[in-house]
Fold these 2 entries.
Entry 1:
Amino acid sequence: MTLHDPKTTEDFRKRQNAPEAGRSTHSIPPDPARPDPARPQNARLDQVSKLFGTFAALRQVSLDLEPGRCYVLLGENGAGKSTLLRILAGLLRPTHGTITVFGESQPHIARARIGYMSHAPMLYDELTAEENLRYFSRLYPGRPCLTPAEALRQVGLDPNLNRLVGQYSQGMRQRTSLARVLLSVPELLLLDEPFSNMDVESARQMVALLSGFGQSDRTIVLTTHQRELAAPIADFIITLHAGRVASITSGFAAANPDRYAADKGSPTQ
């Protein structure tokens, strides 16, 4: 069956509308159950579902992503984390529902304001970091960008290091990849498993870098399987299960579950 097979789409709608299926509607505070159009958002998803044939990668996901916030997506493999990032990046279109990014109903129109870091570092091993960034900066004509040296310094790398990226450690490659997406000074930063294949010290350094971005109006959405690493920088932790938003908790709750339970009670779902 094709993606838009009428029978597939109709079967999906019936399953979603069944009483036992429920509806997954989450809005980030003040009330996770009640979106507030008056609050500023860099991105909004409204009942977004994504079908691949008969498989539903996302099921009726609704989220408001506000400026200056860090959202961490958790979930098992196949939960829909990467699919959600790709939809926000404008690389996939939802099958059902609507998405708005910086006021645009088609995220790819606002792509210059979006930085997307995928699993693959998207770097040329035979070039230095500075040469890589000089090349990628040409992909943003007419948009003020950081210089390669500025981007590398932001991620703690020496722009004068005359070494090919292919000779870098995994931690240095991840930092260079982050510098690549920072070139255009994105307002929505999407990071897919930024801590993957890193040693403990490199991962901690990456966390320290990301925590420094929280002082701006930039929205960060990242996926990870390493909850303990992401908790200190998360404003909100969103857990996906089988394509649905299973829960939303504050970053404080993730880092201090016992204190949160005692002080705040159960989070609204």
Note: The first helix runs from residue 6 to 17.
Entry 2:
Amino acid sequence: MKRLGLIASLLATSLLAGCATPALRGSGDLGVVIERASGSLQIIEHSGNRSLATIDGLGDLSHASAVYSRDARYAFVFGRDGGLSKIDLLEARIVRRVVQAGNAIGGAISQDGKLVAVSNYQPGGVRVFDAESLELVADIPAIGANGERSKTVGLVDAPGQRFVFSLYDAGEIWVADFSAGDEPQISKFREVGKLPYDALITADGRHYLAGLFGEDGLAMLDLWHPEKGVTRVLPDYGRGAEKLPVYKMPHLEGWAIAGDYAFLPAVGAHQVLVVDRRDWREVGRIAVHGQPIFIMARPDGRQLWVNFAFPRNDTLQVIDAEALAVAATLKPGRAALHMEFTPRGEAVWVSLRDDDMVRVYDTATLQALGELPAASPSGIFFTSRAHRIGL
């Protein structure tokens, strides 16, 4: 009897302990929504289209972005005030936050997931941190050929443990190679064009393209053959001969790739440009509702979702990638700023800043699946980005 009583006591203790232990879960269906007005973010789950937690105290998130650790447990959030915050998505807490500069504009995580880089306006340059501890690993001042410090923009990760970024004021592109350790080898490409304001890297990690605010065209660096230097492609990309009013410069990271084509937002025009990726020539234009900002391809490439600059930013359009024509127009709400597809593309999340809401759409039926309240939401970032180059 004593033995039976002891067993019963142990079982009861075990059950109580089990009740006190948080349920185990993965992180593959998680993400964050940036709440720019309140300096906070929501941790979200796209399996159930719900919010799990809110994290406050993240500083100025007016132009914030996020990347993920390779296990997709931690989000690294880059604030406009120079803040770099490491967030534990499973425990819903700030692991560490450092203010590493006075004015920052995005960041990237290295190929091996061990380094996090931040692009800074003030002081101009890139700072690289240990992803585990957020201790500083390298400080790369962006001093151009003219001897002056420059803002840095368009920071991306690239294969080979490299970071690539542009010097806005100096008109240069730099590649920082960390493959040999914490002392990077810097390759500098001078005179790439006037005022490179943003950039992207193709999904295969081969081509880095920088948009030029000071002139038409794009500067392209082939990372398979950097010895060939930077070349100019799409010489007419920009405002062109007719200087139209531009309400917002389109984000180059908002390009879409579907099959052999790249789809670019036209600058100052109500058009989406169609470019053949094999030779980077423009092969067509699609008339759309307003000045495009982001063009996002559904993961299977069949649809392209487009949002627009003010004052037409209450609208989304869906382009049929095969027909190269607008297939549907939606009115989700005021200031539709960002879109993010679920990893396999069955749904898309849309942030509606001026309605304080995030709305979820079924991409097959184009019907709303649900909505979540959020304080002036902007960027939406799912953890599936952890396994993609340049995101």
Note: DSSP finds one helix and 32 strands in the chain.
